Every structure is written in C-alpha cells, then in structure tokens.
Amino acid sequence: MDKFSREQRSLIMSSVKNKNSKAELRVRYELHRTGYRFRLHRKDLLGKPDIVLPKYKTIIFIHGCFWHRHGCKRTTTPCTNIEYWETKFCKNVSRFNEVKKSLEADGWNVQVIWECESVKTELLKIRLGQIFEDLKPIK
Ligand SMILES: [Zn+2]
Questions:
Q1: What's the predicted TM-score (pTM) here?
Q2: Residues 24-38: what's their mean pLDDT?
Q3: I want to staple 64 with a disulfide (CB 3.0 to 4.6 A). Which of 20, 40, 77, 107 is the partner?
Q4: d(CA 44, CA 103)
Q5: In angstroms, what is the span from residue 138 Cα to ligand 1's centroid?
Q6: Ligand 1 centre distance from Cα of residue 123 (Å)
Q7: What is the three-class DSSP state of 32?
Q8: What does the DSSP assignment read for 72-95?
Q9: Using CA atoms, how far apart are residues 93 and 79, in angstroms rounded to an integer?
Q10: How far is it, in rounded angstroms, from Cα 66 to Cα 23?
Q11: Contacts by 118-124 with C-beta closer than 8 Å and gap 24+?
C-alpha cells in the first residue's frame, strides 16, 4: 500500500518538476544565446517534446535525472514505497522509449539532455556542441 498521502506525493512531484523546468530554462537560454530558434512543447508531436528545432528536424528532451533514471548521483530512489516508485520509473522509461522510436520513425533526430548536464554552462555548451556537430539546417 501507498505510504505517501496525496498531498505528500504532489509535493514530491512538484519539487522534481520544478527542478526539471530549471534545467529546461538553462537549455533554452543557451540555445537562444547561440542563435538557434526553436519551438516549445509542440502538442502535435508525440510526447510533447520540450524543444523542437524544425530547421534541423531535431527534438531535444530535457530529462530529470530522478524521473528518467539517468544513473548519475541524482538518480536516488525513495526508501519507502519502493514498489510504487519502481513501477513509476519503469513506466517513464519505457514510455519515453516508445515516444523516441515513433518520432525517429517520422524522421526526427531525437536527443536527450540530462538535468545534470545542464547545471554547468561549460558542460552544457559542450553537450549542445555534440548535438549540433553533424547537423545541417534543412532548406
Ligand atoms: Zn544525471
């Protein structure tokens, strides 16, 4: 049975979501500064991707390390109610794999930036550099 009350759970969720959106803001800021133009949360695409760069036919998801199980030190597991969390994590990961496969089948280049990769500007720049290294704008 679930040990968290509804209120506790929504607190946990919102704190994690906020962190994730901070990561998103950092990535958006850096992309914008570098001159890339993008669209946010396009509802017509599966998974409502965080960032869409139509000119590069590229999609960037910014993943919270906790929710998407990055495996870095931010990937903690709550000590109580393990089964609930494991099911939840499992669903997140397999859902994303489906989304990714389907978007790629439609010709999108799907990239992930992890929350922890966005914290230090220098590292984020390197990561973005990797993503755009071989990409050419579509005319
Ligand atoms: Zn991470």
A1: 0.83
A2: 93
A3: 20
A4: 11
A5: 31
A6: 12
A7: helix
A8: STT----SSSHHHHHHHHHHHHHH
A9: 20
A10: 13
A11: 118/23, 118/26, 118/27, 118/62, 119/23, 119/26, 121/26, 121/30, 124/26, 124/27, 124/30
